[in-house]
């Protein structure tokens, strides 16, 4: 089963090598890598082009002006030709050489439309230092309103689901990934599969959790995502969402 890995880049020269090396180490080789660049001004494109021959025709590079991270991801999805689509951010990397193999095995069984797993947040300056662990769990109906949701960097979905139900809604800015998963899983009830493995090592300081302002804006957008998808939720939801993060940081989950 072919897996499309979309990596959106913008001035990502400092971290992109780690991302690409982690893909090259994968034991499952039926994949394509789509680099969707936003006209980087550093060495990002040079690095991507240097790596391109090592992927033996499985990497395609696009560089054009976009309207932010989720617009770049949507552009990458348009270019995707795989059966399954996932996002690997340019400052993240796979935590294990068997990640794509795990994903492939789950989809080959034929009874799921998406997979998700665990991840760890690592220090931006020392990726061997784990700052927080995100322990996932299987989906249960209504789980989103209780503060549950998948870790988006571990979320892989059949491309046909994105074609039928739409990709990222860019009006949600830093929370478009949450809205997408809410829409697909809670609203459209696509079939889910939790993989009990650590899939991604994610550097702290990303788009949605890099600043307090983004955290607040993200929570506002999340409440709007519930309204858009017709899911009733308590105004206390942001606290429910916060508790698992605190427990993860304290190592209590």
Structure description:
It is a single chain. The protein has 253 residues and is α/β, with parallel strands linked by helices. It has helices at 16-24, 44-51, 69-79, 99-108, 159-165, 176-187, 212-228, 237-249, and strands at residues 3-9, 31-37, 59-63, 84-87, 92-94, 114-122, 130-134, 156-158, 192-203. Strands 1, 2, 3, 4, 5, 6, 7, 8 and 9 form a nine-stranded mixed sheet that branches. Helix 2 (44-51) links the parallel strand 2 and strand 3. The protein is globular, with a radius of gyration of 17 Å.
Can you describe this structure in just a few lines?
The chain is of the alpha/beta class.
Considering DSSP H and I runs of 4 or more, what fraction of the residues is helical? Answer: 25-40%
The proportion of residues in beta strands is 15-25%
Tell me the number of helical segments per DSSP (H or I, 4 or more residues long). Answer: 8
The beta-strand count equals 9
- Distance from first to last alpha carbon: 33 Å
Secondary structure blueprint with pairings:
Blueprint: E1 3-9, H1 16-24, E2 31-37, H2 44-51, E3 59-63, H3 69-79, E4 84-87, E5 92-94, H4 99-108, E6 114-122, E7 130-134, E8 156-158, H5 159-165, H6 176-187, E9 192-203, H7 212-228, H8 237-249
Parallel strand pairs: 1-2, 1-4, 2-3, 6-9
Antiparallel strand pairs: 4-8, 5-9, 6-7, 6-8
